[in-house]
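Before going further, learn to read the protein records used in this course. Taken together, the tokens spell out the fold as the letters spell out the chain. A record is reproduced here so that you can trace the correspondence yourselves:

***
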Amino acid sequence: MTEDRPDGTRWYVIHTYSGYENKVKQYLEQRIHSMDVADRVFRVVVPTEDEVEVKNGVRRTVQRKMFPGYVLVEMCIDPQTWDVVRRTQGVTSFVGTSSNDALPLDEKEVRAILRLMEEEKPQIRITYSKGDRVKIVDGPFAEFLGSVEEVNGEKTKLRVLVSMFGRETPVELDFLQVEKL
């Protein structure tokens, strides 16, 4: 994948305890240097993506793990590097077959994951479904209450029925303009 890597360099997936991915990355990077295998274990990646979530009317961007419980490692696998990775605190196994053989990821899969990580536009968490009660927090209808009539995940839009002047009126809103009640 990179020109300065030796032949046989591939990406592998290691299974970790969920919630410990960043710690495993830190421990593994320390072991790579202390066990002198930096010439064969090149990168340790916890795939994440930015996601916008709205809580109490406040938007914030959070990093969400794309594959909880998994870490990617770019390496040349041999008995020593396998042992260094496998014996790292928090690593439960390589993803592969039941005979402890580590199966490398396909290059296309790796490129797609790395490309997703580099995207600038944060993903918006879709937590709405038809019938949900919501409060509008932004725009001309701020503070109005309504119920979700339709969800358009591709456009990150909702159609919300708002009670005005004694009748239900549909209003199209962005996901970020409402919060669930």
Observations:
- The helical segments are 21-34, 79-86, 107-118.
- The mean pLDDT is 87.
- The chain has two domains: 9-124, 133-180.
- Residues 9-124 form a domain with the Alpha-Beta Plaits fold (CATH 3.30.70.940).
